[in-house]
Every structure is written in structure tokens, then in C-alpha cells.
Specification:
about 900 residues; 48 strands
Length: about 900
């Protein structure tokens, strides 16, 4: 062999060895997890019902419906016919395939991310432990069982007990103070003692929702295997220094389920950003008895190195990847073959922003508003309830995305996650980060007293710790509140607690002040924690956590509902510093109701069954009768008309109230308006602006303009004069705005009068009051009847219209000259994208005379089209023709939509019919 051949052979051997080494690294054993999502069996206690080949996440109601054993619990009166389900016990079981490689790891942990709610967990016949909180993650060391019994086959069995029975048993055996209310109002058709157990409080029924006492495995089940440690959570706190950000990163490591000494390093990186100080730290610590270890480290980031994250409407939502890596010191051992088993990694997305809840003292109380990136912001938004009453469906990413995009598109910058639902999915908070929607976050306690014995408090501690840790790093999280309405319930004696007032207050403080609030504050070092909502904020603390009036408008936040006075009248709204709940009910669209005949008594009966408000339909009907033409009870289209008018009335009430709150930013210091509620869990009378399934009510169409960044607010004040306000939420230099107030007769396209206000300077991020104008005197001088006229208000900047509004001068039902227009719809263009199944339609709406609150709805024959949204609906049309766009999800792009597939209603028609 020549020298050249020898050299070639040597290089070949070297390359072969390198290939072998690289191949070993590629195929070496790595830490990981196995998702146990398939091949489950579900059966009831006596095994008369069995469902094979089930997957998890899952719930009993969903599984029974999919197996065609029951109809949907959301249909007809199936909340009553399915009550037996939650009174039975159910077992999930699955055969675990043996994976010998997993058994070579130091830690093999079965992790249940969410079991709803009470269960025993077995591997074969060995009891691993029990679950008693649907919000808690449970972990069990299963290595020895798997190793010893692998050859014989292993069955994982999760036996779930009835939550209805468990709640009653706990209540019966509870020796402390009676936990009230014991049962919901009879009208709810609900179950009792939900406040005794840690599950979604609304699952036993609410005033907007049905009782579905869910049971199941509503989050993933996984086998986790690793040698050293696993990074479970990363927390993030940001502190604003003069030239830099001080970033406090918390890392929660797990060493299986038992204590172990860890020696290694943690490395921190923010991808694409230079870190100004040490980004690798040594760790030599012992994990606690449950195998958990918390490590905290401070990073320094130059402010010029990152962009700010802004809420919706104020700027970009810039996010960065924070990467954390754990390496055990054993990785350097010469005997170690599989380096990857000693490594753990995790990435979270963070945003750089500061947020402060300002509560400085004023002459009449305390302010209450959010300052984000040094900008005081008026918070515009709504309240979020679970997207489904079935917890396993509430995390559906497509529907969550639809609802959050609807909030973003309606110019909202805040949603309040209400305390009777669930801690939402990681995807929910991730999307809120991306869309710039701040989250006011209640903990899951609502409208009740709660136990305060040691076992309950211990359960709550784990719940709070785990859930705050999981979601804390998201820049969208703005504030925490430990409960919804429980302080005001105590103070106002909602549940008859005054007889033992001191005892109930002591229990309240034990739970929220001594346990929940400190637990949140320990995990989250950079956000305010309110004890309750509503509350007087800092003043509540000074008052010993029980203010004389937790609804005092001079402090904190208030919840305001008024079903007695005319909600169309702006003078009834005094407001407060921050209104975190307010609203009014309406009925879902006629075609949404799950009945066979939309005209007969079946619909009346179902509406009555699903109306859970203690006041029934009386407030809705009263507001219609007060302001609009009331249809006759025996009319053929009674429910069609009442439903439509209820949505008009709801939209008018929430519009009026919201605009008053926006206008009072300077005068009353009002800095937040979150109406109740964005979404629904079934088709029922409720306060929502979006029906269950995604259909917009008229309110959702209107709220986009009501919350617009640039807006003109106009209404008749207590002195019977026209008040005008210019509202600007945008940043930048001063702008010159002009307002044109046009007087219109109900039956004429052309205006009959005009008042102009020119060149008003409007600084950034504020409200400018133009003043009051005696519009009724103006009408009298021009011999115009207020009942037959309205005001159309236009806002201009640099000669271009940027917003509009309207003002009613009399009650619509009293309008004499309103005519019924001929309405003609013409489809100008249709397209459908087969890639995303989105159909787009352009409609020309032509009218013969002005149309009042023109409402369009697809006929029932088009039920295959989902989540349909018009570009506007329920609007005033004072031009002969305009274009409206329609967007729907059309699976397979099969729809052949025609103009006669869209029904039209106007108030003109109903008023004219009443006159005839």
C-alpha cells in the first residue's frame, strides 16, 4: 500500500469514528415525557355503561355524547335529563405499554395535569394517591411498580367519584361555620355545596349557565422520565431602573417526588438580546420533600437592547424568548454515557413592560387606574367566563382564538378572567400576550363563603402556588384579585351572614388575607393583589378588609347593575374610578335556539327554562316597553321581534353606560369599563355580547365603535342639554378635531339642521369636553319635534371623518313620522378560501327611506355556516345605499349563499306595524 493509499485509509477510519461518535450523540438516551392520551376505557360504577378507545383530555358528558348514549347536554332541557351522570361514579382505565428504556432513568413520574375532581389513582391494584382539586397537578413516582410488574401488564386506573355526592358529604361533615349559600336559587336547576369543593364553581349552575357537574381527565396525563431534574415552571419579574431592566427569573426544578441534593448550573439567555451580567450560575441545593427546588437569579438588560410590549391600541406587542437550561455536574463525569439525561431546558416568551396600579389620594377618595410604560390608560374591555361549561372543551384553541380576536378587533385592551371559572390554558395567555389584551385575573372563588379549615386551606395553597407559577410570566397579566364579590356579599348580607358576622369575617380573612394573597405575592413579586372585586382597593386594607361600602365610587372598582331605572338614560350612571362589571341581558338570536319550531310554545318554554336571573325576563321586557314598540303577545312573530328588540336594548344600555364612563375620565377619574360579559356557555338569556358558538349580538357590533381609540361621545345630561366629549386614547402630538352635529328627521335622508364645533385642540391620551348645548331650545326655535328627530354626530381630523355617533332626542316608541323602508340586499361579490374555509361576501344594502337599527341574520337553512360576522349590524342607515361585508367559516366552501338567505329587521317595521 502506497503512502497516499495509507493516508486515505487513515482519513477513512477517522471519519468513520467521527460518524460513530456523532451517531451515538444523536441516538443517545434523552430525558422526556410520554403522553398517555389514547386507548382509555370509561365505565360507570356498576359497569352497565362502557366506552372503549377513548382519548384524554376528556370528560364524562363529552364521552357519553360522542358514544351516542346521550344527546348534547346543551340541547333542549338536557341539563335536567342528564343529572344522573354526575350522581354516578366513573372510572378511566388504560393499559400502559412497558417501555424498558424509561425504567433506566432515575425518575419515572406519572403526572396528572388535571383530574376533575375527586379520584383514587391506581397502578394495577396499588393505590398511588387521591385527587381532590381540579386545578391541581398531581405527581406519583411509579418506577418501582413499572419495573416489578412490567412483564405482567400494567393498568392505570383513575376512579372518579361524584362531585355532587362529595360536596354534600363534605358539607354534612363540616363542623365549622355553615358555608353559605348552601344551594343556588331554585331557578338555576343547579346542585348544592359547590363552595365546599375545589372545582369550577359555575359547573353547579350560575345565573347565566347550566348545571353540568363535570367529571373526567380534563388535562393531559403523562409519564415523565429524567435522571437529574426537570424545569417545571419559570417566573419572571421586571423592575424598571434608570438605564436598564432588572429581571428577576425564578426557576422551579423537580427532582422526582422526593428530596435530593442538586449540583449543577443554570444558564439563562434571552435570544437576540445581550445580557449585561453573569448568565450562568452554580446551584448546590437540596430539593424539598416533594422534590421541588426554587432557584432565583437576577439579569440586567440595557433598555436600549429591547423594545417595549404595549397593550392593544398603544403599540406593538414585542415578545422575546427567555431560555433556561439546567446541567447537572454529573454531565462531566467520565463514566457518563448519556449526557442528555442530565440536561433540562425550557423556553418562555416574555415582554418588557412596566405596569402600576395607581391609587393616589384625591380630595374625595383614592384614584384607581393602570399606568403601563408610564402611560395612564383607560381600560376598555369585558369579562371572560369559561369558553365552555365542559372543562375539557374550554381549552379549545380555535374557539379561544375566535373569542380573543373578537375582543382585540373590538378595541379592547383588557379582559377580566372571572373567579367562578377556571385558570385558563397556556394558549389563552399566550394569545393575550400576542394581541395586547391585559388580564385582570381573579382567583377561582366567587359569590360564596368558603371553608377555612386546615385541609381546605392546604388544598388552596397548592392550587394558588401551581397556577400562579404557571401563568405568572405572561406580560398580559395585569393584576390579581383573590375573589369575586365575596367582600361585598359579606358586607351586604347576601347570604344571611350578619347573625355570625364576626365569625364569617374571621374565616374570610383566614382564607384570602392569610393564605391566598401571601401565596400569590410570594410567587409574583411585581403585581398588585386585590383581596376582592369589587373593593375599595387600598382603602379596604385600611378598613380591615371590610369597607363600609365596597361599592363606593370614590375608591377601587365597582360592579354596577340597574334594572329599575331606564338604562337608555345616561343620567343614571354616576360611575366610579373603575367599573369592572356592568351590563344588561338580551336573548340570543332566534335561529340559535335548539328547538324544532321557532314559533310555538316549545321556544317560550325553553327560554323560560334557561332564564336563570332571579328577576326573570321582566327587566328585558320592561326596557323594551320603556323605549321601543312592544310587540303584541299573540303576534305570529312575537319571539323574533322580542329577541331583536332585546339586543337593540342591550346594545343601547351598554353603549350609553360605557360612553358615560369614558367621558368621565377627567371629571370623576373614571379609568376603566369592563362590561359583563363577553361570551356564553349555552344558548340562553344572558349579559353576553357573543352567543355561545360565536354569533355576534348587536352589542358586539356596536362595542367596536364605543371603544374606538378616537371617539366622540354625545348624550343628553341631567340639565337636559347636549354634552359633547372628544375622547382620544392614542399617543403623539396635539391634534385639531372638529365636530358636526346634524339634526335628522326619522324619515328623511337629508339633514334638517346643523351645529358645528371647529378646531378643538385634543392632546394625547385624554378627554376634552366641548361643553353643553341647549339642543331642545334649538329644536323649539326651529319648530322641530324632539320625538321625530335625532342627532347624527360626526368627528373630523384634518377634514377626514374619523368617528361618528348618534343621540336620541326622544323615545323611539313615540316617533310619529318614522316610515318603514323598503330594504333590498344585493350580493355584489362572493369568495371562499379553501385553505382556511373562510367565505367573504360583499353586500349592497339599499333602502327607500332611513332605516333604524337595521339587523341582518342568516336564515336557519344556512346553519352549516359558522361564526358569521357582518362588518356592521343593528345600525342606523341614513344613506340610500351602503356596502356591508359578511365573513363566515364555510367548511369545504360549499355554500351557495343568495341574498334571500339573509333576513332583515328594522325598528321602523315594528313601529309601523304597531301603528297599523
Amino acid at each position: 500500500m502506497g503512502m497516499l493509499d495509507t493516508l486515505k485509509f487513515f482519513l477513512f477510519v477517522v471519519l468513520l469514528l467521527i460518524t460513530i461518535i456523532l451517531n451515538q450523540n444523536v441516538t443517545s438516551k434523552k430525558s422526556g415525557e410520554r403522553d398517555l392520551s389514547q386507548f382509555w376505557r370509561i365505565e360507570n360504577a356498576n359497569r352497565t355503561l362502557k366506552m372503549e378507545n377513548q382519548s384524554v383530555p376528556s370528560g364524562i358528558y363529552s364521552a357519553l355524547e360522542q358514544a351516542l348514549i346521550i344527546e348534547s347536554v346543551l340541547d333542549f332541557k338536557n341539563d335536567l335529563t342528564t343529572k344522573w351522570i354526575a350522581q354516578d361514579n366513573w372510572t378511566y382505565s388504560s393499559v400502559l405499554p412497558c417501555n424498558v428504556d424509561e425504567l433506566n432513568f432515575t425518575n419515572v413520574v406519572l403526572t396528572l395535569h388535571g383530574v376533575d375532581t375527586f379520584s383514587e389513582v391506581y397502578l394495577n391494584d396499588k393505590l398511588l394517591g387521591e385527587t381532590s382539586n381540579m386545578f391541581v397537578r398531581y405527581r406519583f413516582n411509579v418506577k418501582s411498580i413499572l419495573r416489578n410488574e412490567c412483564k405482567n401488564g400494567i393498568e392505570l386506573r383513575i376512579s372518579i367519584r361524584s362531585p355532587v355526592t362529595e360536596a354534600s358529604l363534605i358539607a354534612a361533615n363540616y363542623s365549622h361555620l355553615k358555608v353559605v349559600p348552601e344551594c343556588p336559587p331554585a331557578r338555576y336547576n343547579g346542585e348544592c355545596h359547590v363552595n365546599m369543593i375545589r372545582k369550577m364553581q359555575a359547573s353547579f349552575a350560575w345565573d347565566w349557565g347550566l348545571a353540568v357537574p363535570s367529571m373526567g381527565i380534563w388535562k393531559p396525563v403523562r409519564v415523565e422520565y429524567y435522571d437529574s431534574a426537570k424545569i417545571r415552571d419559570i417566573t419572571f419579574a421586571l423592575f424598571d431602573e434608570e438605564t436598564h431592566w432588572r429581571v428577576l427569573v425564578g426557576v422551579y426544578l423537580e427532582t422526582g417526588t422526593t428530596s435530593r441534593r442538586l449540583q449543577g448550573t443554570l444558564m439563562f439567555k434571552i435570544l437576540g438580546v445581550e445580557i449585561g451580567n453573569e448568565h450562568i450560575i452554580n446551584v448546590e441545593k437540596q430539593s424539598d420533600t416533594s422534590g421541588e427546588l426554587f432557584v432565583e437569579h437576577t439579569l440586567t438588560i440595557n433598555k436600549t437592547a429591547v423594545e417595549l410590549w404595549w397593550p392593544n391600541g398603544y403599540g406593538r406587542q414585542r415578545l422575546y424568548n427567555l431560555y433556561v437550561k439546567w446541567e447537572d455536574n454529573m454531565i462531566n463525569s467520565i463514566q457518563l454515557h448519556d449526557r442528555e439525561t442530565m440536561i433540562a431546558e425550557k423556553v418562555i416568551r416574555i415582554g418588557f413592560r412596566n405596569i402600576k396600579l395607581s391609587q393616589e389620594r384625591t380630595s374625595d377618595g383614592l384614584m384607581f387606574y393602570f399606568i403601563v410604560n408610564d402611560v395612564p390608560m383607560f381600560m376598555k374591555g369585558s369579562n371572560w367566563i369559561p369558553s365552555s361549561v365542559l372543562p375539557e372543551s374550554s381549552y379549545d384553541e380555535n374557539y379561544v382564538k375566535f373569542l380573543l380576536y373578537a375582543a382585540r378587533d373590538a378595541n379592547m385592551n383588557m379582559l377580566r378572567v372571572w373567579g367562578g371559572g377556571v385558570y385558563e390554558s397556556n394558549y389563552f395567555y399566550q394569545l393575550a400576550d400576542e394581541l395586547g389584551i391585559l388580564i385582570w385575573h381573579d382567583m377561582m372563588f366567587a359569590c360564596s363563603m368558603y371553608p377555612a379549615d386546615d385541609s381546605f386551606l392546604a388544598n388552596v395553597k397548592v392550587e394558588v402556588n401551581q397556577n400562579v407559577r404557571r401563568i405568572q410570566y405572561h406580560p398580559s397579566i395585569a393584576i390579581w384579585a383573590t375573589n369575586n364579590e365575596n367582600e361585598v356579599a359579606l358586607r351586604q348580607n347576601w347570604y344571611g351572614t350578619d347573625a355570625s358576622k364576626d365569625l364569617y369575617e374571621a374565616e374570610y380573612k383566614k382564607l384570602y388575607v392569610s393564605v391566598v394573597q401571601p401565596k400569590i405575592a410570594k410567587v409574583d413579586k411585581w403585581r398588585t393583589v386585590l383581596i376582592s372585586s369589587p373593593s375599595n382597593g387600598d382603602q379596604s386594607i385600611k378598613d380591615g378588609y371590610f369597607s363600609k361600602n365596597p361599592q363606593d365610587p370614590h375608591y377601587g372598582d365597582v360592579h354596577y347593575y340597574n334594572y329599575i331605572q331606564n338604562g337608555w338614560n345616561p343620567i343614571i350612571y354616576r360611575g366610579g374610578r373603575f367599573i369592572s362589571e356592568y351590563g344588561f341581558q338580551s336573548f340570543p338570536a332566534l335561529t340559535s335556539w335548539p328547538v324544532r319550531d321557532l314559533r310555538n310554545d316549545e321556544l317560550t318554554d325553553l327560554i323560560e327554562h334557561r332564564q336563570h336571573s332571579p328577576l326573570g325576563n321582566i327587566p328585558i321586557l320592561h326596557m323594551i316597553n320603556e323605549n321601543l314598540p312592544m310587540p303584541a303577545n299573540d303576534s305570529a312573530n312575537y319571539w323574533r321581534d322580542i329577541i331583536y328588540l332585546s339586543q337593540v336594548s342591550q346594545a343601547m344600555i351598554v353603549k350609553t353606560e360605557t360612553e358615560v364612563y369614558r367621558s368621565k375620565r377627567i371629571e370623576y377619574g373614571t379609568m376603566g369599563a369592563l362590561y359583563w360579559q363577553l361570551n356564553d356557555v349555552w344558548i340562553a338569556p344572558s349579559w353576553s355580547s357573543i352567543e355561545y358558538g360565536g354569533k355576534y349580538k348587536i352589542l358586539q357590533y356596536w362595542i367596536k365603535d364605543v371603544f374606538a381609540q378616537n371617539h366622540v361621545v354625545a348624550y343628553i345630561n341631567a340639565m337636559n342639554k347636549l354634552d359633547l366629549y372628544l375622547v382620544r386614547d392614542t399617543l403623539g402630538s396635539d391634534e385639531e378635531w372638529s365636530v358636526e352635529v346634524n339634526i335628522h328627521q326619522w324619515n328623511k335622508f337629508m339633514r334638517v339642521g346643523n351645529i358645528s364645533f371647529h378646531s378643538r385642540k385634543v392632546p394625547q391620551n385624554t378627554v376634552v369636553r366641548i361643553g353643553s348645548y341647549d339642543i331642545y331650545d334649538h329644536l323649539r326655535q326651529n319648530k322641530l319635534d324632539a320625538n321625530d328627530h335625532l342627532l347624527l354626530v360626526n368627528l373630523y381630523r384634518d377634514g377626514k371623518k374619523i368617528a361618528d355617533n348618534f343621540v336620541l332626542l326622544g323615545k323611539i316608541k313615540n316617533a310619529v313620522q318614522m316610515m318603514e323602508p323598503t330594504v333590498k340586499l344585493t350580493i355584489a361579490a362572493v369568495s371562499c378560501n379553501v385553505a382556511n374555509n373562510v367565505m367573504q361576501v360583499s353586500l349592497e344594502v339599499a333602502i327607500s327611506s332611513p332605516a333604524v337599527f337595521l339587523y341582518m341574520e342568516l336564515t336557519p337553512e344556512n346553519s352549516s355556516l359558522k361564526q358569521c360576522q357582518f362588518s356592521k349590524n343593528g345600525f342606523l342607515q341614513f344613506t340610500p345605499i351602503q356596502t356591508v361585508h359578511l365573513k363566515c367559516v364555510d367548511i369545504g366552501c360549499k355554500s351557495k349563499l343568495q341574498s334571500n338567505d339573509i333576513n332583515v329587521l328594522t325598528v321602523n317595521e315594528l313601529l309601523q306595524r304597531r301603528a297599523d
